[in-house]
Amino acid sequence: MLNFCSNHSCLNEEKIPFSISRVLLEQHQNHFIQEHDYVELVYIVRGDARYIGEGNCCDIHTHDIIIFNSGENHYYEVRQDEPLEMIQCRFNSDFIHESLLRQLGITALMDDSHSYILPDKGGHCCNRLNLKNQDNIRAVSLLNGIQLEWRFKQANHHALIKILVLKLLVLISRYKSQNSSCQPELKSIRNSRSRILTRRVNGFLESHYAEKLSISAISELFNISTRQMNRIFKKETGLTLTERVHEIRIKRAKQYLVESDEKVIQIAILVGYEDPTFFSNLFRRQVGCPPGKFRKVHQEMAEKHISIS
């Protein structure tokens, strides 16, 4: 049995790029997460399974921490003898900005492409650690605290959740640094450097879409020529880098139009366009209607849904 999770249902209905939930996968039940645009941190409460994704597979066990970056597909094969219980903590890449992590010196968790990474000594990217003893107790305590804040939603719970998530990332970073010689059980089933590069570039674009971006600067960041970058990215995604940036920005603009009362001109600036006319024309070409009409249609749909309820 396959369980599918869409982007809209995975994140919460509040206007905060975060959610946390406890999931139980029964025996003979497989779980597939579609490609998403958020970071997912998974803690295995109990059980064993096999994780498959991004060209790698490895066994996962009780007390494992796994991090999935934006754009990563992943699939669980649950063991026959017991269910798999896990805590899924999901947040957008800008929930805790990478500049804050670097400012605090939490660099062990990130590579040069601003993706979360837990490689073994050989450079494999299983993104998995097994927590031991006091480190595991501290991680569980932080996760429990996050769940309580998320459940009861008392005053300033958003700020406390962000602090607790940051503390959890610090703990994981420290544990990874102290145990860097530990090699996770990993068997490579496919080695696609082009796909890994594309995933990392996508992760960077998701985090920096509102900034002024140039193909040459992005190529230099990833230590690759502009020509190679264009060729690889186009081959893997069917889009040029510029087209992908526009796609991300328009997607974010649609979220602002539906979830906020910001004026169209302000939304254009928020997603990276200095010229509101260019933004409106691009939005019309990609979506099929101007931003104002898009907002109006969704407002009418929401009002109709409320009246029916």
| Count of individual domains | 2
Oligomeric state of the chains present here: single chain
Helical coverage, percent range:
40-55%
DSSP strand tally: 11
What name does CATH use for the topology of the largest domain?
Answer: Jelly Rolls
State the major sheet: 6 strands, mixed
**Beta content:** 15-25%
Radius of gyration: 20 Å
| CATH architectural category of the largest domain | Sandwich
Shape: globular
What's the order of the H and E elements? EHEEEEEEEEHEHHEHHHHHHH
**Biggest sheet: strands side by side, in what order?**
1-3-8-5-6-11
InterPro entries: AraC-bd, Homeodomain-like_sf, HTH-like, HTH_AraC, HTH_AraC-typ_CS, RmlC-like_jellyroll, Tscrpt_reg_AraC-type_HTH
Keywords: DNA-binding, Transcription, Transcription regulation
Protein name: AraC family transcriptional regulator
Pfam family, one: HTH_18
Description:
- The protein is an alpha+beta fold.
- It folds into 2 domains: 2-188, Jelly Rolls (Sandwich), CATH 2.60.120; 193-308, Orthogonal Bundle (Arc Repressor Mutant, subunit A), CATH 1.10.10.
- The chain contains 11 helices and 11 strands.
- A 6-stranded mixed β-sheet has the order 1-3-8-5-6-11, with no helix packed on it. The protein has a 5-stranded antiparallel β-sheet with strand order 2-9-4-7-10, covered by helices on one side.
- Strand 5 and strand 6 (56-60) form a beta hairpin.
- Helix 5 (193-208) packs across helix 7.
- The longest helix has 22 residues, at 157-178.
- 32% of the residues are buried.
- It comes from Paenibacillus nasutitermitis.
- This is AraC family transcriptional regulator.
- Keywords: DNA-binding, Transcription, Transcription regulation.
